[in-house]
Amino acid sequence: MKFLRFLISCAITCCLVYFLNIKVGNLPPAGKILDPFHGFWQNAEIDALDINLQLQLSELNDIVNIQYEDNLIPHIFANNDHDLYFVQGYITAYHRLWQMEFITKVASGRVSEILGSSALEFDRLQRRKGLYSAAENGVRELQNHTQEFASLKSFAEGVNAFISQLSYKALPVEYKLLDYLPEKWDPIKTLLIQKYMVNSLNNDADLENTNLVKLIGKERFDFLFPDLPEDMDPIIPEGTPWEFEPVEIYTPDTFEITNSFAVNIKEDFEEGKGSNNWAVSGTKTENGYPILCNDPHLGLNLPMIWLALQLTAPGINTYGVSIPGIPGITLGLNDSIAWGATNADRDLKDWYQITFKDDSREEYLYDGKWLRTQKRVETIKIKSGKDFMDTVLYTHYGPVVYEKSYLGDCTLVNYALKWTVHNASLELVSSYKLNRANNLDETIEALKLWDSPPQNFAIATRAGDIAQIVQGNYPLKWAEQGKFLMDGSDPKYEWQGFIPKEHNARAINPKRGFISSANQQPFSSDYPYYYHSSWDEKFRNRRINSLLTSMTNITVDDMKDLQNDNYFILASESLPVMLDSLKNEELTVDQLEIVKLLQEWDYMANAEVIAPSYFHTWWLKMTKLLWDEFDLDIPINNPSKHMTRTLLNQYPSDPTYDIIETEVAESINDLLTISFIEAIDSVNNWKEANDNIDPLWYLYKNTSLRHMTQIKPFGYYQIPIGGYSGIINATGPNWGASWRMVIELGEEINGWGIYAGGQSGNPGSPAYNTFVDDWAQGKYFKINFWDSFDDSREGTTNIKLTNLREEKN
Question: What gap in Å lies between CA 511 and CA 526, rounded to an integer?
Fold first, then answer.
């Protein structure tokens, strides 16, 4: 019997050894993951400041001091550029290696190498957008700027120094779970991250617009989708003089919109992505100093897109947040200025219908001639599978993203993409100079090199200046050019160059005493160049400008309160007419109680109130019925929330209120009553599924920080925060104010910041989500902007790096 038990024990042990060391699908061997000495749980034991550079110090030129605050924000003090950016690269990799490298995989269409064939279609689309070739163009252009390119190489060397000494035990947990290893870093990876940001912030609706005109006609389209709504408050104050002679633009007598529906794989622009920034002059502040504020609204993930740090060396002393993988400070301050940014997108992506000569697709028609296509073979490696070969055709416009080899049966769809991201640009040079700018003039000069993604840069200086610069590389177009799918064979649809940078809209020290932007239209109709954007914010900006206009003796606390403002302006402008239009006689007693709740609501979408949950659900149900004629199996967009609000308030008899699937013709009263009842039912269903708890706004909208891999235990859910899209505190289910910053530029610079996350990318680290609770509550940490290293500062951890070559001598 003992021998039998021994045999069974041996058999079980052998089976465990076997199964724990084989791969199942794309999962790593379980034994490798569960290894108590090297597996994923070891990451929870790595000390947050277990930094050991001793093996890499031979690559430094001089002493470097790193001073860490207890919240894990590093202050790097170096004596030269090389060491500064080398250590920034090392420190960034130490905290965020997996995140920054994974983004390069996403941007370059290499996710299949990690996740297998399930990511193939995503990778194909990424390759077809041309982001990798755009990054190649960027690296070639940067090589002409010796100093700035050297900083990029130093950063890469620092990243590689960390990777070279990285043991499996210390490997970020995501590599262990997904069973792969980091690659060597090089400058093109930094450019890929920059192009990835452009991709996430550039939007277009050319194909959707084409379908809409075909569906509803041009006159109705122009009414529902105006370029410049009349009641907007533009970024550049109306009446600002344009002190330049505009470039003449050839405008054709006519242009044609295709008679066929456009087809593509629709990419939704994520609602809520935008930003706020503003600066108030000393004439409006209590202390007489300018104050600058910024809160970019981006996707909420863990690790968060930002890493806070200070960089100090001869000629540079700057603090703020960087995007992991990109050297320098992206948003922040230095000794003389502070700057923030919001997305300044407009129509930068145009689609052209290509006519190929034959099925070989080796030639395409242009201006009566047949031009040759270029072919780029993309080899997509698939984990646990065979390589996939995809041939992407390139025209002089750009890549043919959608065609028969990608869409299968859609043999007549040949859409080439012309996009500013493909052009070589110098954002890293711009950032390098911006980090070192000493005054407003130097700041403006630095920003002239910024092309993409276009940004509204808010600037404040210690000299007392404030300015808003709408900066980007914007194509010269005639009115409505690129708003619809264009005929790629006709040269009249070509861009005519770019708007000169000095003609970009700007406001410097305006009389009203403040500048602001919140992704709204940049200027009024008197700007001499054509403007079109498929997405403009139409609520936050009016709330911000209204409050700033009325405010005097402004303090830093006033600005913090404004960044966390939860006033729901869409509700204030829509809900009264929605309630007045209800057919109350058709409602139950319980439903009438919700009517009363909404009537008494003060329009503040705070975390622990109920009314926003009902209004939001009613709005969704109402717009689904209102725009039901657009619910088709082709790319198409609904009119904006602003236009819906306008229709409700000004056009109560519009035929749109009729619900298509019914035989009767509904009125506005019918539609709003039906959708209200549906909304109540929807909220009740949510309550039943959640133990009949009250639908508090923060629970209902469920703002969450999900890990980039969607591994649930690595996330942070149901964060108690208010706000929503169109609210200054623009915080939704998976997007929000990613970094809040308030800077007062006086004799001494004072600053406060917070972001939704923590400095460490390690889910096992106590610094993984350090700031989340304070962020949700509208609190900030004090920005410690130090002039020099001081090892006597309390509450800091100091690391001194020396050059081993000199020590050995």
Answer: 19
Tally the domains of the chain: 2
Pairing of β 74-77 and β 307-313: parallel
8 Å CB contact between 210 and 258: yes
Q: Look at residues 176, 193, 210 and tell me which one is the last residue of a structural domain.
A: 193
Element (H, E) at 152: helix 146-164
Residues 6+ apart with CB under 8 A from 370: 357, 363, 364
Asked if residue 297 lies in contact with residue 737, where contact means CB atoms within 8 angstroms, the answer is yes
Tally helices (H) and strands (E) across the chain.
24, 27
Q: What is the pLDDT of residue 229?
A: 83
Average pLDDT, the chain: 90
Q: Which of 478, 380, 511 has the alpha carbon at shortest distance from 116? A: 380
Residue 187 near residue 89, CB atoms below 8 Å: no
Would 404 be classed as within a structural domain? no
Structural domain harbouring 124: 2-46+83-193
End residue of a domain, out of 134, 168, 193: 193
The residues pairing with 280 across neighbouring beta strands, listed in sequence order, are 291, 514
User: How high is the pLDDT of residue 57?
Assistant: 64
Measured CA to CA, the distance from residue 596 to residue 608 in angstroms comes to 18
The amino acid present at 248, given as its one-letter code, is E
Instruction: Determine phi and psi for 782, rounding to 5 degrees.
Output: -75, 130
% helix, strand, coil for the chain, step of 5: 35, 20, 45
Per-residue pLDDT for 20 more than 70? Answer: no
pTM to 2 decimals? 0.93
Find out whether the peptide bond into 290 is cis, omega within 30 degrees of 0. Answer: no
Instruction: Determine, yes or no, domain membership for 91.
Output: yes
Neighbouring CB atoms inside 10 A of 287's CB total 15
How far apart are alpha carbons 729 and 275 in whole angstroms? 10
Q: Percent of the chain scored above 70 by pLDDT?
A: 90
Angle of helix 589-599 relative to helix 569-580, nearest 10 degrees, comes to: 140
372: β partners: 363
Q: What is the CATH number of the domain that holds 109?
A: 1.10.439.10
Residue 619: how many other CB atoms lie within 10 Å? 20
Report the range of poorest mean pLDDT among 73-87, 243-257, 547-561. 243-257
| pLDDT beyond 90 at 54 | no
Kind plus residue range of the DSSP H or E element containing 460: strand 455-461
516 in a domain, yes or no? no
Q: Classify burial at 743, counting beta carbons within 10 Å of its beta carbon; exposed 0-12, middle 13-18, buried 19 or more.
A: buried
Q: Which SS3 state, helix, strand or coil, does residue 86 take?
A: helix
pLDDT level of residue 635 (50, 70, 90 thresholds) = confident
Cis peptide, bond prior to residue 237, ω within 30 of zero: no
Q: Residue 241, preceding bond cis, omega within 30 degrees? A: no
In a domain, 802, yes or no: no
We report the CATH number of the domain holding residue 594 as 1.10.1400
